[in-house]
Specification:
Layout: H1 2-7, H2 10-24, H3 36-45, H4 51-67, H5 69-77, H6 82-92, H7 98-108, H8 114-127, H9 134-149, H10 155-161, H11 163-171, H12 176-190, H13 193-201, H14 204-212, H15 219-229, E1 233-240, E2 243-250, H16 252-271, H17 273-286, H18 290-298, H19 301-314, H20 324-350, H21 357-362, H22 367-380, H23 389-415
Antiparallel strand pairs: 1-2
Helix pairs in contact: 2-3, 2-4, 4-5, 4-7, 6-7, 6-8, 8-9, 8-10, 9-12, 11-12, 12-15, 14-16, 15-16, 16-17, 16-19, 17-20, 18-20, 19-20, 20-22
Length: about 425
Amino acid sequence: VHQHLKRAGEGTSQAIMSLLLNLSSREVDGKTLKDADVSLLLVDLLPSSSSDIQRDLLRVLEDSFMSSPSSRSMWMSYPLLGTSRLLYFLDALSPSFWSLSISLMRQLAPVWTAADVSDVFQAVIGRMDLPHLAQLNNDLLLLLLTLSSTSVISLDYLRAAGGFQLAFCLLSSQDESLRCRGVDLVALLLSSPKDCKLFLKSCGFELMLEVLQRRPSSMAMVDALLQHATSGILRKGSTEGARIEKELVLLLPGFHLLQVLLNLLPALAEAEEEQSLDVCRRVLLILEGPSSSVKFLLCGGLDCCRRLLMKLEEGRGGRDSGGSWQKTKAGLQETIGRIAGSMAWHGLWQDVKVLNVKELIRNELLYPPVLEEILQRLEDNAEISPAQTSNVTSVLKSLERIFRGLIESSSSSSSS
Protein backbone atom coordinates (compact mmCIF):
# COMPACT_ATOMS: atom_id res chain seq x y z
CA VAL A 1 0.00 0.00 0.00
CA HIS A 2 2.87 2.35 0.86
CA GLN A 3 4.54 1.80 -2.50
CA HIS A 4 1.29 2.22 -4.39
CA LEU A 5 0.47 5.51 -2.66
CA LYS A 6 3.93 6.87 -3.41
CA ARG A 7 3.42 6.21 -7.12
CA ALA A 8 -0.21 7.39 -7.18
CA GLY A 9 -1.29 10.98 -7.67
CA GLU A 10 -2.58 13.15 -4.85
CA GLY A 11 -6.23 12.49 -5.72
CA THR A 12 -5.77 8.75 -5.77
CA SER A 13 -3.82 8.84 -2.50
CA GLN A 14 -6.55 10.80 -0.74
CA ALA A 15 -9.21 8.44 -2.09
CA ILE A 16 -7.35 5.38 -0.82
CA MET A 17 -6.72 7.05 2.55
CA SER A 18 -10.40 7.90 2.84
CA LEU A 19 -11.27 4.28 2.12
CA LEU A 20 -8.83 3.02 4.75
CA LEU A 21 -10.20 5.48 7.26
CA ASN A 22 -13.75 4.37 6.51
CA LEU A 23 -12.78 0.73 6.93
CA SER A 24 -10.93 1.49 10.19
CA SER A 25 -14.19 1.97 12.04
CA ARG A 26 -15.55 -1.37 10.86
CA GLU A 27 -14.49 -4.97 10.99
CA VAL A 28 -13.13 -6.22 7.67
CA ASP A 29 -11.89 -9.84 7.52
CA GLY A 30 -11.66 -9.82 11.29
CA LYS A 31 -9.49 -6.69 11.48
CA THR A 32 -10.32 -3.30 13.03
CA LEU A 33 -8.47 -0.27 14.35
CA LYS A 34 -7.69 -2.38 17.41
CA ASP A 35 -5.19 -4.29 15.28
CA ALA A 36 -1.68 -2.85 15.39
CA ASP A 37 -1.00 -3.28 11.67
CA VAL A 38 -4.15 -1.35 10.71
CA SER A 39 -3.31 1.48 13.13
CA LEU A 40 0.31 1.58 12.00
CA LEU A 41 -0.68 1.77 8.35
CA LEU A 42 -3.03 4.68 8.99
CA VAL A 43 -0.68 6.73 11.14
CA ASP A 44 2.20 6.18 8.71
CA LEU A 45 0.08 7.69 5.96
CA LEU A 46 -1.21 10.50 8.17
CA PRO A 47 1.45 13.21 7.51
CA SER A 48 0.97 13.00 3.72
CA SER A 49 -2.84 13.19 3.93
CA SER A 50 -5.08 16.22 3.65
CA SER A 51 -5.98 18.17 6.75
CA ASP A 52 -9.53 16.82 6.66
CA ILE A 53 -8.27 13.24 6.61
CA GLN A 54 -5.80 14.00 9.40
CA ARG A 55 -8.53 15.46 11.58
CA ASP A 56 -10.88 12.56 10.92
CA LEU A 57 -8.23 9.97 11.73
CA LEU A 58 -7.24 11.66 15.01
CA ARG A 59 -10.90 11.72 16.02
CA VAL A 60 -11.32 8.05 15.11
CA LEU A 61 -8.29 7.23 17.28
CA GLU A 62 -9.68 9.28 20.15
CA ASP A 63 -13.07 7.55 19.93
CA SER A 64 -11.35 4.19 19.85
CA PHE A 65 -9.23 4.98 22.92
CA MET A 66 -12.24 6.32 24.84
CA SER A 67 -14.49 3.34 24.07
CA SER A 68 -12.03 0.47 24.19
CA PRO A 69 -9.38 -0.21 26.85
CA SER A 70 -7.96 -2.89 24.55
CA SER A 71 -7.26 -0.23 21.90
CA ARG A 72 -5.26 1.78 24.43
CA SER A 73 -3.32 -1.28 25.53
CA MET A 74 -2.61 -2.29 21.92
CA TRP A 75 -1.35 1.19 21.06
CA MET A 76 0.97 1.39 24.04
CA SER A 77 2.31 -2.15 23.68
CA TYR A 78 3.21 -1.94 19.99
CA PRO A 79 6.83 -0.74 19.54
CA LEU A 80 6.17 1.53 16.55
CA LEU A 81 3.20 3.27 18.16
CA GLY A 82 3.03 4.34 21.81
CA THR A 83 3.75 7.79 23.25
CA SER A 84 6.61 8.42 20.83
CA ARG A 85 4.20 8.29 17.89
CA LEU A 86 1.90 10.88 19.50
CA LEU A 87 4.87 13.15 20.12
CA TYR A 88 5.75 12.71 16.46
CA PHE A 89 2.25 13.94 15.57
CA LEU A 90 3.03 17.20 17.39
CA ASP A 91 6.03 17.77 15.13
CA ALA A 92 4.56 16.48 11.87
CA LEU A 93 1.08 17.97 11.95
CA SER A 94 -0.25 21.52 11.89
CA PRO A 95 -0.60 23.38 15.23
CA SER A 96 -4.37 23.23 14.72
CA PHE A 97 -4.14 19.50 15.57
CA TRP A 98 -2.14 19.89 18.79
CA SER A 99 -5.20 19.84 21.02
CA LEU A 100 -6.41 16.58 19.44
CA SER A 101 -2.97 15.00 19.85
CA ILE A 102 -2.82 16.04 23.51
CA SER A 103 -6.33 14.67 24.00
CA LEU A 104 -5.06 11.31 22.70
CA MET A 105 -2.30 11.45 25.33
CA ARG A 106 -4.88 12.12 28.01
CA GLN A 107 -6.76 8.97 27.00
CA LEU A 108 -3.58 6.88 27.10
CA ALA A 109 -2.22 8.32 30.38
CA PRO A 110 -3.80 5.65 32.65
CA VAL A 111 -1.61 2.99 31.00
CA TRP A 112 1.55 5.10 30.85
CA THR A 113 4.78 3.95 32.46
CA ALA A 114 7.53 6.06 34.02
CA ALA A 115 9.34 5.96 30.66
CA ASP A 116 6.35 7.51 28.88
CA VAL A 117 6.17 10.38 31.38
CA SER A 118 9.91 10.92 31.01
CA ASP A 119 9.56 11.00 27.20
CA VAL A 120 6.96 13.78 27.40
CA PHE A 121 9.07 15.83 29.80
CA GLN A 122 12.17 15.40 27.65
CA ALA A 123 10.19 16.50 24.59
CA VAL A 124 9.25 19.70 26.44
CA ILE A 125 12.83 20.34 27.57
CA GLY A 126 14.07 19.80 24.04
CA ARG A 127 11.65 22.41 22.69
CA MET A 128 11.97 24.81 25.62
CA ASP A 129 13.99 27.44 23.75
CA LEU A 130 11.65 27.56 20.74
CA PRO A 131 9.26 30.51 21.26
CA HIS A 132 6.74 29.32 18.65
CA LEU A 133 6.25 26.09 20.64
CA ALA A 134 5.77 27.82 24.00
CA GLN A 135 2.01 27.20 24.08
CA LEU A 136 2.45 23.53 23.13
CA ASN A 137 5.03 23.03 25.89
CA ASN A 138 2.75 24.73 28.39
CA ASP A 139 -0.19 22.51 27.39
CA LEU A 140 1.89 19.33 27.68
CA LEU A 141 3.10 20.32 31.16
CA LEU A 142 -0.41 21.24 32.27
CA LEU A 143 -1.55 17.80 31.12
CA LEU A 144 1.15 16.02 33.14
CA LEU A 145 0.63 18.16 36.25
CA THR A 146 -3.14 17.77 36.15
CA LEU A 147 -2.93 14.00 35.72
CA SER A 148 -0.38 13.77 38.56
CA SER A 149 -2.42 15.92 40.94
CA THR A 150 -5.44 13.66 40.34
CA SER A 151 -3.35 10.48 40.79
CA VAL A 152 -3.85 9.31 37.19
CA ILE A 153 -0.05 9.45 36.94
CA SER A 154 1.99 8.35 39.94
CA LEU A 155 4.13 10.96 41.68
CA ASP A 156 6.93 8.39 41.49
CA TYR A 157 6.89 8.82 37.71
CA LEU A 158 7.59 12.55 38.13
CA ARG A 159 10.50 11.76 40.42
CA ALA A 160 11.87 9.23 37.94
CA ALA A 161 11.58 11.79 35.13
CA GLY A 162 13.78 14.24 37.01
CA GLY A 163 11.72 15.59 39.91
CA PHE A 164 13.13 18.79 41.38
CA GLN A 165 15.96 18.86 38.85
CA LEU A 166 13.38 19.03 36.07
CA ALA A 167 11.46 21.72 37.97
CA PHE A 168 14.56 23.94 38.23
CA CYS A 169 15.17 23.48 34.53
CA LEU A 170 11.69 24.89 33.91
CA LEU A 171 12.21 27.69 36.44
CA SER A 172 15.23 28.88 34.47
CA SER A 173 13.32 29.03 31.17
CA GLN A 174 13.02 32.29 29.25
CA ASP A 175 9.30 31.64 28.84
CA GLU A 176 7.13 32.89 31.69
CA SER A 177 4.48 30.18 31.32
CA LEU A 178 7.13 27.46 31.66
CA ARG A 179 8.54 29.13 34.77
CA CYS A 180 5.04 29.07 36.26
CA ARG A 181 4.76 25.38 35.39
CA GLY A 182 8.08 24.91 37.20
CA VAL A 183 6.50 26.41 40.32
CA ASP A 184 3.53 24.07 39.83
CA LEU A 185 5.87 21.07 39.67
CA VAL A 186 7.77 22.14 42.80
CA ALA A 187 4.49 22.55 44.69
CA LEU A 188 3.26 19.15 43.53
CA LEU A 189 6.44 17.43 44.69
CA LEU A 190 6.30 19.29 48.02
CA SER A 191 2.95 17.60 48.71
CA SER A 192 5.05 14.57 49.64
CA PRO A 193 6.47 14.96 53.20
CA LYS A 194 9.59 13.05 52.16
CA ASP A 195 10.23 15.31 49.17
CA CYS A 196 9.47 18.41 51.23
CA LYS A 197 12.02 17.40 53.86
CA LEU A 198 14.64 16.79 51.16
CA PHE A 199 13.88 20.15 49.53
CA LEU A 200 14.27 22.01 52.83
CA LYS A 201 17.48 20.17 53.67
CA SER A 202 18.91 21.07 50.27
CA CYS A 203 18.04 24.80 50.67
CA GLY A 204 15.63 24.36 47.79
CA PHE A 205 13.58 27.49 48.49
CA GLU A 206 16.69 29.67 48.58
CA LEU A 207 17.84 28.20 45.25
CA MET A 208 14.35 28.65 43.84
CA LEU A 209 14.38 32.35 44.72
CA GLU A 210 17.85 32.78 43.24
CA VAL A 211 16.77 31.22 39.93
CA LEU A 212 13.54 33.23 39.73
CA GLN A 213 15.33 36.51 40.43
CA ARG A 214 17.38 36.06 37.26
CA ARG A 215 14.27 36.83 35.20
CA PRO A 216 11.87 39.79 35.38
CA SER A 217 9.12 39.29 37.97
CA SER A 218 5.52 39.11 36.83
CA MET A 219 2.05 38.90 38.32
CA ALA A 220 1.61 35.49 36.71
CA MET A 221 4.53 34.16 38.75
CA VAL A 222 3.34 35.88 41.94
CA ASP A 223 -0.16 34.47 41.45
CA ALA A 224 1.26 30.96 40.98
CA LEU A 225 3.32 31.23 44.18
CA LEU A 226 0.40 32.68 46.15
CA GLN A 227 -1.97 30.00 44.89
CA HIS A 228 0.32 27.16 45.96
CA ALA A 229 1.27 28.83 49.24
CA THR A 230 -2.39 28.93 50.24
CA SER A 231 -3.51 25.65 48.65
CA GLY A 232 -2.52 23.53 51.63
CA ILE A 233 -4.46 24.96 54.57
CA LEU A 234 -5.41 23.44 57.90
CA ARG A 235 -8.38 24.70 59.87
CA LYS A 236 -7.28 25.06 63.46
CA GLY A 237 -9.77 25.59 66.27
CA SER A 238 -9.06 27.21 69.61
CA THR A 239 -11.47 27.41 72.53
CA GLU A 240 -11.62 30.47 74.69
CA GLY A 241 -14.38 30.29 77.28
CA ALA A 242 -17.59 29.40 75.52
CA ARG A 243 -16.37 30.80 72.18
CA ILE A 244 -14.67 28.69 69.53
CA GLU A 245 -12.43 30.50 67.08
CA LYS A 246 -11.19 28.96 63.86
CA GLU A 247 -8.03 30.01 62.08
CA LEU A 248 -6.78 28.99 58.67
CA VAL A 249 -3.15 27.89 59.02
CA LEU A 250 -0.82 27.30 56.09
CA LEU A 251 1.13 24.08 55.82
CA LEU A 252 4.92 24.36 56.21
CA PRO A 253 5.83 24.65 52.49
CA GLY A 254 3.35 27.51 52.17
CA PHE A 255 5.33 29.76 54.51
CA HIS A 256 8.52 29.24 52.51
CA LEU A 257 6.70 29.90 49.25
CA LEU A 258 5.38 33.15 50.76
CA GLN A 259 8.96 34.18 51.49
CA VAL A 260 9.92 33.52 47.87
CA LEU A 261 6.90 35.58 46.77
CA LEU A 262 7.64 38.50 49.09
CA ASN A 263 11.26 38.65 47.94
CA LEU A 264 10.07 39.05 44.35
CA LEU A 265 7.78 41.97 45.18
CA PRO A 266 10.34 44.84 45.13
CA ALA A 267 11.29 44.06 41.52
CA LEU A 268 7.65 43.53 40.59
CA ALA A 269 6.66 46.84 42.17
CA GLU A 270 8.70 48.73 39.61
CA ALA A 271 6.54 47.41 36.77
CA GLU A 272 3.21 46.71 38.42
CA GLU A 273 2.96 48.97 41.44
CA GLU A 274 -0.69 48.63 42.43
CA GLN A 275 -0.72 44.85 41.96
CA SER A 276 2.37 44.36 44.13
CA LEU A 277 0.84 46.37 46.95
CA ASP A 278 -2.38 44.37 46.68
CA VAL A 279 -0.43 41.09 46.93
CA CYS A 280 1.44 42.34 49.99
CA ARG A 281 -1.86 43.20 51.68
CA ARG A 282 -3.23 39.76 50.85
CA VAL A 283 -0.19 38.18 52.51
CA LEU A 284 -0.84 40.35 55.58
CA LEU A 285 -4.38 38.96 55.80
CA ILE A 286 -3.04 35.42 55.54
CA LEU A 287 -0.60 36.03 58.40
CA GLU A 288 -3.03 37.81 60.73
CA GLY A 289 -3.78 34.67 62.76
CA PRO A 290 -1.54 33.78 65.72
CA SER A 291 -0.55 30.30 64.52
CA SER A 292 0.30 31.47 61.01
CA SER A 293 2.28 34.46 62.31
CA VAL A 294 4.37 32.36 64.68
CA LYS A 295 5.04 29.70 62.05
CA PHE A 296 6.13 32.34 59.56
CA LEU A 297 8.33 33.82 62.29
CA LEU A 298 9.96 30.42 62.85
CA CYS A 299 10.53 30.08 59.09
CA GLY A 300 12.61 33.26 59.07
CA GLY A 301 9.78 35.72 58.48
CA LEU A 302 11.46 38.66 60.25
CA ASP A 303 14.62 38.25 58.18
CA CYS A 304 12.46 38.19 55.07
CA CYS A 305 10.78 41.46 56.08
CA ARG A 306 14.16 43.02 56.91
CA ARG A 307 15.53 42.18 53.47
CA LEU A 308 12.40 43.53 51.80
CA LEU A 309 12.62 46.84 53.63
CA MET A 310 16.29 47.17 52.67
CA LYS A 311 15.51 46.49 48.99
CA LEU A 312 12.72 49.06 49.05
CA GLU A 313 15.06 51.57 50.66
CA GLU A 314 17.48 51.07 47.78
CA GLY A 315 14.57 51.84 45.48
CA ARG A 316 14.85 52.32 41.75
CA GLY A 317 18.37 53.60 41.65
CA GLY A 318 17.25 57.19 41.14
CA ARG A 319 15.15 56.48 38.07
CA ASP A 320 11.99 57.79 39.68
CA SER A 321 12.24 59.54 43.00
CA GLY A 322 8.69 60.81 43.13
CA GLY A 323 5.18 60.32 41.90
CA SER A 324 3.33 57.04 42.11
CA TRP A 325 6.43 55.01 42.99
CA GLN A 326 6.93 56.87 46.27
CA LYS A 327 3.29 56.22 47.15
CA THR A 328 3.62 52.53 46.33
CA LYS A 329 6.91 52.30 48.20
CA ALA A 330 5.37 53.85 51.31
CA GLY A 331 2.42 51.46 51.10
CA LEU A 332 4.71 48.45 50.78
CA GLN A 333 6.87 49.59 53.69
CA GLU A 334 3.81 50.09 55.87
CA THR A 335 2.34 46.68 54.99
CA ILE A 336 5.64 44.84 55.44
CA GLY A 337 6.06 46.58 58.79
CA ARG A 338 2.60 45.37 59.81
CA ILE A 339 3.49 41.82 58.76
CA ALA A 340 6.65 41.99 60.89
CA GLY A 341 4.68 43.54 63.75
CA SER A 342 2.07 40.78 63.58
CA MET A 343 4.80 38.15 63.82
CA ALA A 344 6.46 39.92 66.74
CA TRP A 345 3.16 40.41 68.57
CA HIS A 346 2.05 36.80 68.30
CA GLY A 347 5.59 35.62 69.00
CA LEU A 348 5.58 37.58 72.26
CA TRP A 349 2.28 36.17 73.39
CA GLN A 350 2.70 32.55 72.35
CA ASP A 351 6.35 31.86 73.04
CA VAL A 352 8.83 34.59 73.91
CA LYS A 353 11.75 32.38 72.89
CA VAL A 354 10.78 32.37 69.22
CA LEU A 355 11.28 36.14 69.02
CA ASN A 356 14.94 37.16 69.01
CA VAL A 357 14.64 40.63 70.50
CA LYS A 358 18.36 41.37 70.08
CA GLU A 359 18.14 40.69 66.35
CA LEU A 360 15.01 42.79 66.11
CA ILE A 361 16.46 45.97 67.60
CA ARG A 362 19.67 45.78 65.56
CA ASN A 363 17.86 46.75 62.38
CA GLU A 364 16.77 50.37 62.31
CA LEU A 365 14.34 49.73 59.43
CA LEU A 366 12.56 46.89 61.20
CA TYR A 367 12.02 47.73 64.84
CA PRO A 368 10.15 51.07 64.46
CA PRO A 369 7.21 49.55 62.52
CA VAL A 370 7.29 46.50 64.80
CA LEU A 371 7.11 48.65 67.92
CA GLU A 372 4.33 50.73 66.40
CA GLU A 373 2.31 47.62 65.60
CA ILE A 374 2.83 46.12 69.06
CA LEU A 375 1.80 49.35 70.81
CA GLN A 376 -1.26 49.68 68.58
CA ARG A 377 -2.30 46.12 69.35
CA LEU A 378 -1.81 46.70 73.09
CA GLU A 379 -4.04 49.75 72.85
CA ASP A 380 -6.67 47.84 70.87
CA ASN A 381 -6.55 44.86 73.25
CA ALA A 382 -6.48 46.60 76.61
CA GLU A 383 -8.61 43.89 78.21
CA ILE A 384 -6.60 40.74 78.80
CA SER A 385 -8.53 37.50 79.05
CA PRO A 386 -7.88 35.11 81.96
CA ALA A 387 -6.42 32.58 79.55
CA GLN A 388 -3.67 35.06 78.61
CA THR A 389 -2.90 36.41 82.07
CA SER A 390 0.10 34.13 82.54
CA ASN A 391 1.77 35.65 79.48
CA VAL A 392 1.46 39.28 80.58
CA THR A 393 4.69 39.30 82.55
CA SER A 394 6.64 37.76 79.71
CA VAL A 395 5.22 40.27 77.25
CA LEU A 396 6.05 43.24 79.44
CA LYS A 397 9.59 42.01 80.05
CA SER A 398 10.12 41.54 76.34
CA LEU A 399 8.80 45.03 75.61
CA GLU A 400 11.08 46.41 78.28
CA ARG A 401 14.09 44.82 76.59
CA ILE A 402 13.01 46.25 73.22
CA PHE A 403 12.61 49.77 74.63
CA ARG A 404 15.91 49.55 76.50
CA GLY A 405 17.66 48.51 73.31
CA LEU A 406 15.96 51.32 71.42
CA ILE A 407 17.04 53.91 74.00
CA GLU A 408 20.61 52.59 74.08
CA SER A 409 20.75 52.64 70.29
CA SER A 410 19.46 56.22 70.17
CA SER A 411 21.91 57.33 72.87
CA SER A 412 24.91 55.82 71.10
CA SER A 413 23.84 57.41 67.80
CA SER A 414 23.54 60.84 69.46
CA SER A 415 26.93 60.63 71.16
CA SER A 416 28.68 59.62 67.96
